[in-house]
Amino acid sequence: MSSHHLVIITGANRGFGSSVAHSYVAHSGANAISFVLVGRAQQGLEDVLTELRNAGSGNNVAIHGVAIGDVDLADIDTLENSLTRIRDAAKQLRLQSNTITKSVLINNAGSLGDLSKTAKEVTWQETRKYLDFNVVSFVGLCSSFLQDTLAEFPKDQHPDHRTVLVNISSLLAVQACSNWSLYATGKAARDRLLGVIALEEKRNNVKTLNYAPGPLNNDMQADVRRTLGDKEQLEIYDDMHKKGLLVKMEDSSSKLVLLLKKDEFESGGHVDYYDK
Ligand SMILES: NC(=O)c1ccc[n+]([C@@H]2O[C@H](COP(=O)([O-])OP(=O)(O)OC[C@H]3O[C@@H](n4cnc5c(N)ncnc54)[C@H](OP(=O)(O)O)[C@@H]3O)[C@@H](O)[C@H]2O)c1
């Protein structure tokens, strides 16, 4: 059966978000993919879209899509406008194809917070700013995506359409480590929200997944090694980096896309790259 996926990815211009988009083309098994690539850097998103189109022609996957730049998910004053732009783009793509079989939201964008600080040094002001980006905008993205998707594909009229929400999570969502207070708080909150949505929308063919990609060999990990205040953990990350043990982004993003393709994961659960 022909399959056409609508895939929204935040922070798709670089890092893991871009890697997930590439793996989606290579491994999802979809015949056609309509991407909504979201982020701050318009040009970076457009470059990724061009790469995806090229990859699609090599893999026999029809790639459609749009780059929604100038979206600062940390800016609460422009969030409503940003969400509207993302919703409009998704709607446009749905209208263009009229054949969407699966709608996927991949909440990838995220930030570390100041890892030099312990919790007692963190101010409420920086906490508020951190949570605006990593939790408040996440909630807005999830709820608007669900509203539109369920309105567009009511189960009684589209029994085969599937909806999936993914949180790019972290080990820190389920394990406490020194100096990660904001990051761990944000990831735990995101995990729990998707747990709730899994229950609320089960009857609507909606599944959710919290995926921890492992310590990736990328810019964010370099920032961790540069800023982390806890010496013990720093040694572990330095050692992994020196020994080439950090996870290749492509390996982790492929694992995520294959999980989504197999569709055997427990909805609302937390899956780590290292899980069997
Ligand atoms: N790297 C790791 O080892 C690791 C491990 C576990 C989990 N993760 C999670 O994986 C996800 C992706 O991280 P990454 O490793 O790819 O990090 P990254 O290299 O720092 O990329 C972060 C992405 O988020 C975007 N972003 C940052 N601030 C934004 C804002 N205010 N509004 C909109 N977009 C914004 C960035 O766009 P700009 O180019 O505009 O900055 C970029 O696309 C994150 O949720 C992270 O917590 C990463």
Automatic annotation (TrEMBL):
Pfam family, one: adh_short
Alphabetized InterPro entries for the sequence: Biopterin_syn/organic_redct, NAD(P)-bd_dom_sf, SDR_fam
GO cellular component: cytoplasm
Subcellular location: Cytoplasm
Main location: cytoplasm
Keywords linked to the UniProt accession: Cytoplasm, NADP, Oxidoreductase
Gene3D superfamilies: NAD(P)-binding Rossmann-like Domain (3.40.50.720)
Gene Ontology terms, MF aspect: sepiapterin reductase (NADP+) activity
GO biological processes: tetrahydrobiopterin biosynthetic process
Protein name according to UniProt: Sepiapterin reductase
Higher taxonomy: Eukaryota, Fungi, Fungi incertae sedis, Mucoromycota, Mortierellomycotina
